[in-house]
Amino acid sequence: MPLTATRRALFAAPLAAPGLAFGQGMTRVRFTMDWAFQAPQSFGLVAREKGYFREAGLDVQIDRGQGSGGVPVALGGGSHDMGYADIAPTLRFLAEDPSRDVIAVAMLHDRSPLCIIARADGPIQTPKDMEGKRLAAPDFDAARQLFPAFARSAGIDMGKVNFISVQPPLREPMLVRRDVEGLTGSVQTSSIALVGLGVAQAQQKLFMYSDHGLDLYGGAILTTRRYLERNPEVVRKMVAALMRGFRDQLADPAGALEALKRAEPLTDVALERQRHDLMVQRMVLSDHVRANGLSQVSAERLQGNLDMVKSLFNLPGRVMANQAYTPDFLPPADQLRLPGGLA
Predict the structure, then answer these.
(1) Where is the SsuA/THI5-like domain positioned along the sequence (predicted)?
(2) Adjacent-strand bridge partners of 228
(3) Three-state DSSP class for 114?
(4) Would you say the pTM of this structure is higher than 0.85?
């Protein structure tokens, strides 16, 4: 059953007026991405460059991030009003303390980017082959943190997997040098990093968590209840503008990458096109999205995500799906359909 917009009255009137940009009558919004400006983040740049924020009366500051795990912390701490991040760290953030103030208001990716990558010519050809092998990952990597759930689903003996703790810049080079047999990470990050190091996608063996029993959602637009209760129309306009930018990115990847290049002149457009295509195929397109459109979140599926995180980390209490996501700020359904070439 999809989560439906049943609580619009709760957000019908702001409790306090949002801040206005000086001298322009524009509402200032501080938005943080999860990482550097790359293909997956270009939807925000498209929305800004095409004037979608300005049309809505919004003056939006878009900042790069330091990882998906930092976005709910930034929102809760008040340094930013809204943000974009993979949903998995946010679900853990909520499950650790259900009183924490963060909520998703749109889901861009129907499937999680979390994965394990090995070399196609290496000894890991099936999940079971990971036993007795070395996997490189930072301690805080979301795919590493959720690996026990992947292992349980795939029938892997966790006690036989050797994790090598590394800093993020060292992870992919270790696989290139064959110092490890595999790594955990996000597909749009690690796979393309390997391409940049000379290991083409055809030379990689991918094990997507979403293909092995972990039906996790992916990238989401986040804010806090405090902010959306005070600024419901701002959130509604932001979500509409961002989803418009995202659909434009899907319809015209080359145009989105031009916007990215203007924002980040050192962008390798060919590499980012591979990153974009990988994101679309592995994270955005699904039978569910083709049939129903973007951000049509199932309450049962999201609850399963939350309960898995709670069980995996032995956390107290239970976060309900409607505490983690609300559809109340989405634009009309016709504005959430996939562009014609992808539907």
Answers:
(1) 45-256
(2) none
(3) strand
(4) yes
Amino acid at residue number 108: L
Indicate which CATH number applies to the domain containing 267.
3.40.190.10
194 and 247, same domain (yes or no): no
What is the span of the domain harbouring residue 145? Answer: 114-211
Asked if 268 and 133 sit in the same domain, the reply is no
91 and 124 fall within a common domain: no
272 vs 189: CA distance, rounded Å: 10
User: Of 162, 180, 211, which residue is a domain's last?
Assistant: 211
Token pair of 112 as six digits:
């999680």
Please name the residue ranges forming H helices in the chain: 42-49, 52-55, 70-77, 87-96, 142-145, 147-154, 168-176, 187-196, 225-230, 232-251, 253-263, 269-279, 287-292, 299-312, 321-324
Based on the domain organization, do 240 and 293 belong to the same domain?
yes
Cβ–Cβ under 8 Å, residues 46 and 243: no
Within this chain, do residues 224 and 87 fall inside the same structural domain, yes or no? yes
Q: Coil, strand, or helix at residue 183?
A: strand
The amino acid occupying position 158 is M
With H, G, I as helix, E, B as strand and everything else as coil, classify residue 1.
coil
Give CA–CA dist 158/50, Å, rounded: 48
* pLDDT tens per residue, range 251-291: 999 999 999 999 999 999 999 999 999 999 999 999 999 99
